[in-house]
Write a structure and sequence with these properties.
Layout (H helix, E strand, L loop, with lengths): L7 E4 L10 E2 L7 E4 L6 E3 L4 E5 L2 E4 L4 E7 L1 H7 L1 E2 L5 E3 L8 E6 L5 E3 L4 E9 L27
Antiparallel strand pairs: 1-6, 2-3, 3-12, 4-11, 5-10, 7-9, 7-12, 8-10
Amino acid sequence: MASPITIRIRRKAESADVEPPRYMSEHASGMDVCAACEGDVTIAPGDVKLVPCGFYMAVPVGYEAQMRPRSGLALKHGIVLPNSPGTIDADYRGEVCVILANVGGEAFTVRRGMRIAQMVIAPVTRAQTEFVEELDDTVRGEGGFGHTGV
C-alpha cells in the first residue's frame, strides 16, 4: 500500500454536528461523506439537487477527490451522482457539495447527517496535447458505441 497523503479539512462552523469524511472499513477505498443540509431535502423521481456537506478541504497538488454514489443508495433508492465521478480539484476551496439525482420510482428524502456519497482520493496525470495531420491506424479504427456488439 502506498503511503497515505494528508487531506486538510476545515468544518463549516454550523456543521460541527455532521460527521467528517471517514473510511467505514479497514480496506475501504472511499470515505463516506454526509449531508449537512439545513433541513430535509426531498428528491422526486427525475429531480437533481445540490446537497452541501459542511466542510472545505485542501487536496494536495497532483491529486483530486472523486465523489461517487454509495452503492446501497443507488440500488435501493435510485440515488446517483449524475456527474459521477464528480471531481474536486486541488485548487478548489469552496464548500464541498454533492449533486444527487433520483433515477428511482419514489421520492427520496436526504436528512442532515445521512451518508450520501463516497469520496475517493486519486492521483492526477496531466497531459500535453499535440495537433497532427493524421493519427496512426488501428484494427478498431473509428468503430465505437457498441461496434463490438451489445
